[in-house]
Amino acid sequence: MRAYNFCAGPAALPTAVLEKAQAEMLDWQGKGLSIMEMSHRSADYVAVAEKAEADLRKLMNIPENYKVLFLQGGASLQFSAIPLNLLGKNNKADYIRTGIWSEKALKEAKRYGDINVVEAGIKTEDGKLAIADQSTWNLSDDAAYVHYADNETIGGLQFAHVPETDKPLVCDFSSSILSAPIDVSKFGLIYAGAQKNIGPAGLTLVIIREDLLDQSKPEIPSILKYADQAKNGSMVNTPSTYAWYLSGLVFEWLLEQGGVEAIHKVNLQKAELLYGYIDSSDFYANPIAKENRSIMNVPFTLANPELEKQFLQDAKENHLLNLAGHRSVGGMRASIYNAVPLEGVQALVNFMDDFAKRNA
Ligand SMILES: *Cc1c(COP(=O)(O)O)cnc(C)c1O
């Protein structure tokens, strides 16, 4: 049986998608070979790649003046690719810090440009973590772009609003893309590693407004250069063909679910169920201020940390997997991405309640 998988990434994939991939594994659409064994330049593969892009454009309502790139190297390589692509004319950028991922992005960017760090993580009076109101941020007047991470996957902290700026807004959406509607036109660049809410590891999405394609630094490797990738359909070299295909199956599945608006409603139900239970219990606690709670990654602690090992072991026996928090912060974390169904969250809450009663 398939367990409920709360892994932060690589994360759960819809069972229907894995079944389709399994059915097509050895002989893709009667062609006598696996999609993995096909040239990325063959007409069959190019059609698969283009269909994935068209479906993503539909799901996210991506305007015509944006390019969609299917790249490799993970979101972490984008931490370098973004400054190399965008700081060629003006070497300054603002980076909003809210947690571990936005911190990693700005550390890497500092190797390439003049980075203004905007502190936005705060503690509320009752000791919860929150994102400071934009009026307190020290944004600069002359940045080439403003970078932030919509959802801090490790901390479980998410922006309640898109920041306001007249500069191109660059956002790491690795763990929240496709979980809720995004107005793409507000952004200069959106990027996301696939392995949280899109598909398997090995693929990184970049969605970039076309007018930003001409400001790269001269020393940029051509593989990282968005203008070259855009000109070549993300095939400057061999792309991650299987991950691209499988992500395309996820996009088809999402369209069948009714698209991003429909899955967002389910995601809100899941988050309300889990946070609601945690808030009602003295046994569990979540450290984030309500307005900035992530709807995808829910960290929680046990009143008695000595029970953590037992909690994880019992959860596993109940087919609830990967609930340990990130190694840097400890505690527990349930990642409830699109592919984790409401029943999975209900099963988790039932287990948590039972565990609390048994160990009170
Ligand atoms: C997982 C994650 C990353 C890193 O992704 P890789 O693809 O492993 O490089 C970056 N940012 C956020 C917000 C993430 O959740």
What can you see in these coordinates?
34% of the residues lie in helices and 18% in strands. It is α/β, with parallel strands linked by helices and 360 residues long. The protein has two domains: 15-257, Aspartate Aminotransferase, domain 2 (3-Layer(aba) Sandwich), CATH 3.40.640; 258-358, Aspartate Aminotransferase, domain 1. Helix 1 (15-24) packs across helix 6, helix 3 crosses helix 4 and helix 7 runs parallel beside helix 9 (342-359). The longest helix is centred in the last third of the chain and has 22 residues, at 259-280. It starts with a strand and ends with a helix. The model has no long low-confidence stretch (mean pLDDT 97). The site of pyridoxal-5'-phosphate has 12 residues, from helix 3.
Write the layout of secondary structure elements.
Layout: E1 4-5, H1 15-24, H2 43-60, E2 66-71, H3 74-86, E3 92-97, H4 100-109, E4 114-119, E5 121-123, E6 129-131, E7 146-149, E8 151-152, E9 157-158, E10 169-172, E11 189-193, E12 204-209, H5 226-231, H6 241-256, H7 259-280, E13 284-285, E14 297-302, H8 308-317, E15 320-321, E16 332-335, H9 342-359
Parallel strand pairs: 1-15, 3-4, 3-7, 7-10, 10-11
Antiparallel strand pairs: 2-12, 5-6, 8-9, 11-12, 13-14, 14-16
The structure holds pyridoxal-5'-phosphate.
For the record, the count of structural domains works out to 2
Structural class of the helix and strand makeup? Answer: alpha/beta
User: What series of H and E elements makes up the topology?
Assistant: EHHEHEHEEEEEEEEEHHHEEHEEH
Number of strands: 16
Binding site for pyridoxal 5'-phosphate: 75-76, 101, 153, 172, 195, 237-238
Protein name: Phosphoserine aminotransferase
Subunit structure: Homodimer.
Enzyme class: transferase
